[in-house]
Specification:
- The chain is mainly alpha-helical and about 400 residues long.
- The chain has 18 helices and no strands.
Length: about 400
C-alpha cells in the first residue's frame, strides 16, 4: 500500500493544482479587474501558457527521471509547483499570473508519469494495469477537492492550500523506494534519458508519436468542452453553467473511468481493447454534448460526468506509453508523453478558434474540432502494439 499511496497522493495534489486555474478562472480574473471579454481571452491565453509549461516540464523531468531516478522527479517537481502555487496566490496582474502558471506547469509535469513508471517497474506485470488505475483514480479526486475549496475559500486561498498540500506531501515521500530496474541500469554504461533518441530511430519515433496522438482527445474534452463550458452553455441557450462545477463533475467521473478501464484491461488482457471501448464512450457523450440546444443545466452537468467517465482512457494511454519503451527511456516517455498531450492544448485551441471562425459558430467549430482529433487518435491507436503483460526488463539501443 505504501508503494501506491505515495504516487496516489502526489497525483491528487497534481490534479488539484493543474485544474485549479480552470476552476477559479472566472472569479480570479474578474477580481483582477478584467472585463467578461478579457476573462475569456486572457483565460485561453493563461491556460495555454500553463500547458506550455507542462510541455517543457515533461521533457525536463523525463530526462531527469531516467538519468537521476524516478524519485528525483517526485521530489523536485512537487517542490517547484508548490512554491509557484503559493506565489500564485499573491499575483496582482495577468502577467504575473501567466508567468507563475508557466512555472507551476513545469513542476506539475513530473508527477503522474514518474508515479506510473515507478509503479510499473516495482510491481509484477499482472498487477501493473490495475495499480496504475488505482493511482490515477484516487489522484483525480484532487479536482473535486479543488472545486469545494473554491466554494469555501477565496481563489487566492485556494492557491495557498494547493502549495501547502504539496509541501506536506514532500515530507511524506521520504520513505519511498527507488525502482529496482532503474537501480540495476544505473550501474551500467547504457545511455539513459537521452530525449533525442526518440528522433534517431524511425520505428521508435513513430512509437513515440502514436503514444502522444492517442491521448489528444482527453485534452479536447478537458481543455475545450469543459473548461469553457460556460461559453458552450450560452451557445446552447443554457444559462448559469459554472465551469468549476463542470470540471468537478468531469473529474469525479474520470476517477471511476480510470478504475473501470484498469479493471477492464485486466479482464480483457488487452490495453488496446479497453482503450477503444472507452473511446466509444467518449464519442457517445461528446455527441450528446452537442445535442443540447434547449436543454438544462442538470443534464449539461450529467453529460460532463459522462465525458469524464469516457476520458478515463487516460490511464491506459499513459500505461501503454510506459510499457512501449525500455528502462533507459521509460521515464522520459511516460513523463513527456502526457505532457506533450497537455502541451498540445494551445494547438487544439488554435484549431478550435479557426473552426469556429470558419463556420461562424462556436458549436459547429467545437464538434468539427472533436471529429478531427478523435479520428487522428483512433488511427494512431489502431496501429499501436499491444503491451499487456509485456516484460519491461529491456533497454532501447
Amino acid at each position: 500500500m505504501r508503494l501506491l499511496s505515495a504516487p496516489s497522493l502526489g497525483f491528487f495534489v497534481d490534479v488539484y493544482d493543474l485544474l485549479l486555474f480552470g476552476i477559479v478562472r472566472k472569479p480570479s480574473l474578474t477580481d483582477l479587474g478584467l472585463s467578461p471579454e478579457e476573462v475569456l481571452s486572457q483565460g485561453e491565453f493563461i491556460i495555454s501558457i500553463q500547458m506550455m509549461g507542462l510541455l517543457v516540464g515533461g521533457i525536463l523531468w523525463g530526462i531527469v527521471g531516467d538519468k537521476k531516478g524516478r524519485l528525483s522527479v517526485l521530489f523536485g517537481s512537487i517542490l517547484l509547483y508548490s512554491i509557484a502555487n503559493i506565489l500564485n496566490g499573491m499575483v496582482v496582474d495577468t502577467t504575473q499570473y501567466a508567468v507563475l502558471r508557466f512555472i507551476a506547469g513545469v513542476g506539475l509535469a513530473g508527477e503522474l508519469g514518474a508515479g506510473i513508471t515507478l509503479v510499473s517497474e516495482l510491481l509484477p506485470k499482472e498487477k501493473r494495469g490495475i495499480a496504475a488505475a488505482m493511482v490515477a483514480s484516487f489522484g483525480i479526486l484532487g479536482a473535486v477537492t479543488a472545486f469545494f475549496m473554491k466554494e469555501m475559500f477565496t481563489w487566492r486561498m485556494c492557491y495557498f492550500i494547493g502549495g501547502g498540500l504539496g509541501l506536506v506531501l514532500l515530507i511524506l515521500r521520504v520513505s519511498v523506494s527507488e525502482s529496482s530496474l532503474f537501480n540495476q541500469l544505473k550501474t551500467t554504461a547504457i545511455q539513459r534519458g537521452n530525449f533525442l533518441m526518440f528522433f534517431t530511430n524511425r520505428e521508435r519515433f513513430v512509437r513515440y508519436v502514436r503514444c502522444i496522438l492517442i491521448g489528444i482527445p482527453a485534452w479536447y474534452i478537458i481543455g475545450v468542452l469543459v473548461t469553457f463550458s460556460d461559453q458552450f452553455g450560452a451557445a446552447f441557450g443554457i444559462e448559469g453553467i459554472d465551469p468549476g462545477k463542470a470540471i468537478m463533475m468531469l473529474y469525479m467521473a474520470i476517477a471511476f473511468g480510470d478504475l473501470s478501464v484498469g479493471l477492464l484491461s485486466q479482464r480483457l488482457k488487452s490495453r488496446k481493447k479497453a482503450l477503444f471501448i472507452f473511446y466509444g464512450i467518449t464519442v457517445l457523450f461528446t455527441t450528446l454534448f452537442f445535442l443540447q440546444p434547449g436543454g438544462n443545466a442538470t443534464t449539461f452537468y450529467l453529460i460532463c460526468a459522462g465525458l469524464g467517465y469516457g476520458t478515463g482512457f487516460t490511464v491506459v494511454y499513459i500505461t501503454m506509453s510506459a510499457e512501449q519503451f525500455g528502462t533507459n527511456l521509460r521515464a522520459t516517455a511516460a513523463i513527456s508523453v502526457p505532457n506533450m498531450v497537455r502541451g498540445a492544448l494551445p494547438l487544439i485551441i488554435v484549431l478550435f478558434k479557426f473552426m469556429r471562425n470558419l463556420f461562424d459558430s462556436y458549436v459547429t467549430g467545437g464538434w468539427v474540432t472533436g471529429v478531427i482529433l478523435m479520428s487522428i487518435a483512433v488511427i494512431a491507436a489502431w496501429k499501436m502494439e499491444e503491451t499487456f503483460g509485456k516484460d519491461l526488463n529491456f533497454v532501447e539501443e
